[in-house]
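Deliverable D5.2: sample structural annotation.
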Amino acid sequence: MHSEAADKVDFSVIRYGQCWEDADVLLEALAISPGDVCVSIASAGDNTLALLARSPGRVIALDLSPAQLACLELRVAAYRTLSHPELLELLGSHPSVRRAELYERCRSQLSDSVRTFWDERHGAVESGIAGSGKFEHYFALFRRRVLPLIHSHAMVERLLQPRTLDERADFYARQWDTIRWRLLFRIFFSRFVMGRLGRDPHFFDYVDGSVADRILERGRYALVELDPAQNPYLQWILTGAHPSALPFALRPENFEPIRRNLDRLEWHCTTLEQFLDEHRELRVDRYNLSDIFEYMSAAHYASLLTRLVRAGRSGTRLAYWNMLAPRSRPDALAAELQPLSELAAELHRRDKAFFYNRFVVEAVR
């Protein structure tokens, strides 16, 4: 079975220097049991590593981008070699003046091709590898060039202070939600600008309606309904670091469980479709599918979903996000796949990676 994205998108560059899906809701959705076989879209590696904290039997990370797998491999080397505070420095979550030294300590753990990849990206290492992707560069442009035209640095710091729900609603209405905020936000997060500077334009092939309006609505949700003081994704967008909140894989309590289970992780540079073709005997218990269906036609999505179901077993769970293109179980699979709609809706209400319109959780019958 062929991959649509492979034909359209250049995957030779780092598109995501970090994962932009909330591992907290992912782990609750998947409910991994010790010994489970998990298949995970690699992306930058954070959420794939988060799965290891639940002691699965095997985690198989897949990505058709060598650059994304280089991000995962360097993270694995960092977990093996560095302390937890040093890991946060290397990634860019916390300030550092010694990232080149930290990378040098990890370097011997890398394969030859990945060592060459990062040796040629000295600037990305010095700046923090979690900020090395095209998507992070897009947010950095917003943070450095657009946000100062809307709000001062002091106002951003005020936004990130802990508040009650009522206090957040009042702050947003009175202080944050200005005409300039809405206007510049809609321009910068439009389909055109995001396609040129953030994501590949082909990622919008199956999206209808206003991209900016949907993201603006979800942005309000993140600033009011969720707590910015506890949101690592929002904090990175606004500050380029994690001043008071960390994603699951980077929290100190999860560092040792992940490190302890690194030998259960493997990664392959291939498409999900090709991997299934080459491993027809494999039975999978849990799928972290990121938002890969966003980039597929409805027909291709339904075909691949059928393959994933057939590679599972009764009770296998699948979790994935819809950002702008609606994807969920087609009626043709009703006898084989059960939507866990209430669980998914509750988790989506708590999803700190706020720009997704929907979180989908399904289980093989």
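Annotation notes: The first helix runs from residue 4 to 8. The two ends are 24 Å apart (CA to CA).
The annotation will be released with the project's public dataset once the embargo ends.
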